[in-house]
Inverse folding.
């Protein structure tokens, strides 16, 4: 009997090795003493955590692909990169202009060179005519544009939000935007006479439709999800417009403002050129008209350059910084994207990564 028992023990597999050989359910894992079904739970949880980490890695990789690493440069290098392209363009234009003068494409009294125009600029500045015309046109242009913004913004919100108003007046507003502003000058002279009211009337008729259409275009591009979120958070009608719709529609609104300023400035020049005399002051349009009447092309070029410079300065000092700030806050500026990829900059992207890390247990 002892010998048979020992043979039977030799033929049976060890207790600890049986689960690994047979793989039967319900047996304990080696060295744990826990039943099989409960041992599979940690393995499944570990697989889920590993999968979540893989998803997190994929999302982090996609975020890295969507961002660009902005190289660290000094302020002088940034200033030089911002200055030299326009300086180079102006230099090329002056060179072409002077070359045409040397080639005598037109007589010198019809096509004065940069030197002659600069002489006319200094002469007008010394006499005070330049500063008078520049100050009058700037005052009219800025005040007229601000009035157009004050009128066009609420009208644009109404047109964008009230369907029957949009269907009824939308085509008329678009037609007014296409209509040349100079067409309003004779009507303004008949209605208001030769006064500043005529100038401001022409400015408003040129700028207000552009601002309205800019707001309508921006509101149309607001995702419907934003409105639903505002409703869920309990935003009222006014709060929905102020805190949800207008901030989301700001890119289109800004484009409408830029176009409205362009229309305001062009309308102002048209009114000042045509409506001369009476109670209308001496602006850049009248300065240009004076050069034409005197057949002084140097004076004409001076007025044209002043009109051009004012438009460029307003763009660089007001609209460009506002647009840059908007892009930076929305994570669309190059330096913001680069900072986001290095852990700085876009708060939205950082919050998204933190939430993803917390969700995936990283």
């Amino acid at each position: 009997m002892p010998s048979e028992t020992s043979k039977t023990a030799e033929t049976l597999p060890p207790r600890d090795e049986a689960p690994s050989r047979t793989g039967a359910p319900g047996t304990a894992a080696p060295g744990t003493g826990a039943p099989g079904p409960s041992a599979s739970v940690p393995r499944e949880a570990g697989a889920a955590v590993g999968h979540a980490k893989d998803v997190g890695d994929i999302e982090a990789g996609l975020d890295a692909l969507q961002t660009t690493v902005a190289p660290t440069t000094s302020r002088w290098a940034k200033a030089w990169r911002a200055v030299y392209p326009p300086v180079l363009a102006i230099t090329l234009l002056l060179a072409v202009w002077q070359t045409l003068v040397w080639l005598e494409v037109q007589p010198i009294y019809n096509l004065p060179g940069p030197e002659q125009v600069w002489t006319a600029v200094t002469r007008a500045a010394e006499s005070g005519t330049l500063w008078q015309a520049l100050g009058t046109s700037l005052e009219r242009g800025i005040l007229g544009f601000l009035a157009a913004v004050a009128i066009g913004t609420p009208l644009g919100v109404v047109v964008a939000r009230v369907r029957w108003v949009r269907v009824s007046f939308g085509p008329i507003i678009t037609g007014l935007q296409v209509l040349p502003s100079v067409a309003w000058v004779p009507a303004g002279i008949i209605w208001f006479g030769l006064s500043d009211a005529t100038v401001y009337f022409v400015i408003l008729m040129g700028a207000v439709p552009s601002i309205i259409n800019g707001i309508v275009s921006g509101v149309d591009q607001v995702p419907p999800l934003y409105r639903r979120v505002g409703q869920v958070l309990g935003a009222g009608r006014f709060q929905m417009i102020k805190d949800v719709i207008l901030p989301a529609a700001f890119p289109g609104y800004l484009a409408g403002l830029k176009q409205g300023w362009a229309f305001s400035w062009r309308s102002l020049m048209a009114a000042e050129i045509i409506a001369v005399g009476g109670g209308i002051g001496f602006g850049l349009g009248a300065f240009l008209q004076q050069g034409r009447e005197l057949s002084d092309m140097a004076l004409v070029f001076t007025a044209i350059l002043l009109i051009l410079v004012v438009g460029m300065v307003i763009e660089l000092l007001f609209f460009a910084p506002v647009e840059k700030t908007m892009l930076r806050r929305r994570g669309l500026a190059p330096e913001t994207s680069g900072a986001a990829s290095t852990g700085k900059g876009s708060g939205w992207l950082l919050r998204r990564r933190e939430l993803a890390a917390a969700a995936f247990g990283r």
In short: Residues 1-35, 336-349 have pLDDT under 50 and may be disordered. DSSP finds 16 helices and no strands in the chain. Residues 133 and 282 are 5 Å apart (CA to CA). The domain at 115-330 is CATH 1.10.3720.10 (MetI-like fold).
